[in-house]
Design brief:
The structure is a homodimer. By secondary structure, the first copy, chain A, is α/β, with parallel strands linked by helices. Chain A folds into 2 domains: 2-116, 60s Ribosomal Protein L30, Chain: A (2-Layer Sandwich), CATH 3.30.1330; 122-284, Alpha/beta knot. Helix content of chain A is 35%, strand content 19%. Chain A has helices at 2-9, 24-31, 35-41, 49-56, 74-84, 96-102, 142-154, 172-177, 192-201, 239-245, 268-284; strands spanning 15-17, 43-47, 62-67, 90-93, 111-116, 132-137, 159-163, 187-190, 205-209, 215-216, 226-230, 252-256. In chain A, the strands form 2 sheets. The first copy, chain A, has a 7-stranded parallel β-sheet, sandwiched between helices. A 5-stranded mixed β-sheet of chain A has the order 1-4-3-5-2. In chain A, α7 (142-154) runs parallel beside α11. The longest helix of chain A has 17 residues, at 268-284. Chain A is elongated and about 65 Å long. At the A-B interface, α7 and α11 of A face α7 and α11 of B.
Chain lengths: 289, 289
């Protein structure tokens, strides 16, 4: 199997075999597991085949693919090389040990792809009369953020926006929990103040998940240009969002899930899913796939 | 602070200070982090204050509480001791180092409680005309199982039943993800065959989450005595469940969530939440908290 893969790879001039742990490109790649590394280099790394293919198929600009031809399948390599014909990037082939030092966590399917960091400007988010935004403030766990992106993808949301970020769309665990959907999803990062201004200026009907809110989530009207807003795992939404509730000239409501048991809240990504699917149900999912 | 806590603790005769790592009870307790240890001893351990208090307030039979009076608050200890007045169990106080070797993962709030393993017999699950069961087959990740229990608690479900288990209700990560709700929730473990027989014999209206099913989840009728059935994270439901679908004399339907994006499925605990809240919405949540 391995010789097959190498036969397949080696004739391609774009594949560069690197075996030295001192190679600067590999050192740089290994640093992309941390937010410090990502910020310093203005690049992000995507670990795993499914996530990498979704990223390569998006608008994100690839820099290089790092493969371990001893691990990954020739089918996966062929897919990467097919994309390479349209988007120029290099392919580096690493021995197993060096690959394992470069990858994140237990991802062992032999593919890492590196991209220029995609922009996440609030101004890039489009609004129409039928937009459906999902906004999260200060979510801490990248797995929760990625799960919310996965749900937003599933319901066909227009964007995911993070206010006052505590984690990164491009944290490896966020990318993974999103199954790579984070690349195709329009997304933005801004301060809570900027997001509140943006909602107000665009007159977006805003449903804020608040423990103890009067309105049950299914009683809200999710038609039109809407945003669902969720807060931090432990603290919920911060004070400025409560002030927004008082602007009665805007269509803003606090909503909550009924809680019939011992616990007074659900996980933020679970709450997001229930709210997003209720929005989709009301907005008409009979025509959906 | 520490001397306050000790003043508070030491006069109580039921608190036993243990400082030797060779103490057999502490060695046994440390083994409860593994399923092998839990099975061998017929006991389970609960890590953390919130989860322990929920377990102590349930019908589960406590054996002992292990505290680290250097770490946990006197308020938490007072709560445990208040419960101890009604339910006899011992309290062992460990120094920090020994406590950390006995606890699971990063739980550092200084309380472990140990219980006789609660029974999980299918025959213990009650059925009425308005029961609402949540059934999961072969879920692998204890965090997913616990999250499903948390959701089942939130919607006031009658039970959570695991068919052909691959993980344990009492895995520390399951207890934690359930926030301790797993103790109050009626629960059972059985083979898929037994669960299918039970559903059939009790004529329970069964909605099975199946990728590609014809019926969209909100088109199903969740009234009456119902079960929502979810499959394994990767494989979905096994073949016997598909055969059940063909028994047209029973009210059994395959349902699915609409997927409008790149991905063809959601996480099993997310799917459970969307289905459970749709059931609750249809069953009437206007009177709920």
């Amino acid at each position: 199997m391995r010789s097959d893969v190498l036969d397949f790879l080696l004739p391609l001039t774009s594949v560069q075999r690197i075996t030295s742990p001192q190679n600067q490109r590999i050192k740089d790649a290994a640093r992309l597991t941390t937010s410090r590394g990502r910020n310093a280099q203005g690049r992000i790394a995507v670990y795993g085949v499914r996530e990498s293919l979704r990223a390569l198929q998006s608008d994100a600009k690839p820099v290089e693919a790092i493969v371990c031809s001893e691990i990954t399948s020739s089918e996966n390599l062929a897919e990467v090389q097919a994309i390479q014909k349209h988007k120029p990037f290099e392919i580096l082939d690493l021995p197993r040990d060096l690959f394992k030092k470069t990858t994140y966590g237990d991802r062992t399917d032999g593919l890492i792809t590196i991209f220029e960091r995609p922009t996440t400007k609030l101004g890039s988010i489009e609004n129409t009369a039928e937009s459906f935004h999902v906004i999260v403030e200060s979510v801490e766990k990248p797995g929760n953020l990625g799960a919310i992106v996965r749900t937003a993808d599933a319901v066909g949301a227009s964007s995911v926006i993070v206010a006052d970020p505590l984690t990164d769309f491009f944290h490896p665990n966020s990318i993974r929990a999103s199954l790579g959907c984070v690349f195709a999803m329009p997304k933005a990062v801004a301060t809570a103040e900027q997001v509140i201004d943006w909602l107000t200026q665009n007159r977006i009907k805003t449903m804020m998940a608040i423990v103890g809110a009067q309105t049950l989530y299914h009683q809200a009207d999710y038609s039109g240009n809407i945003a669902i807003v969720l807060g931090n795992e432990a603290q919920g939404l911060s004070q400025p969002w409560n002030l927004l509730l008082e602007k009665t000239e805007l269509k803003i409501d606090g909503i909550r899930l009924p809680m019939c048991g011992l616990s007074d809240s659900l996980n933020v990504s679970t709450t997001a899913a229930v709210l997003c699917y209720e929005a989709l149900r009301q907005r008409g999912l009979n025509n959906m796939n």
